[in-house]
Task: structure prediction
Amino acid sequence: MLGNIVSALISGGVSLIAALFSFLPEIDMASLPLVPPKEVSDVLGFFNWFVPVADLLTIFALWVAAVLAINILLPLLRLVGSVKGD
Result:
């Protein structure tokens, strides 16, 4: 019973977030001026020989996803625990 309620709340929240994102305009990332100056590109190319920047960005993205997941999961677990009376 409680699992069904939590599942309905989560699916409703996901649907609400998806509906809100549907109102946002689409942005063509290729049209954004994200090209760094030549000097910066040269330094990053040299730096990439010693520190794999792409790997660091992947690790950082995974770390941010893990932190977000924990910060979403802990309040939900507290809410479920308070509903159960633990």
Summary: DSSP finds three helices and no strands in the chain. The radius of gyration is 21 Å. Residues 2-84 form one domain.
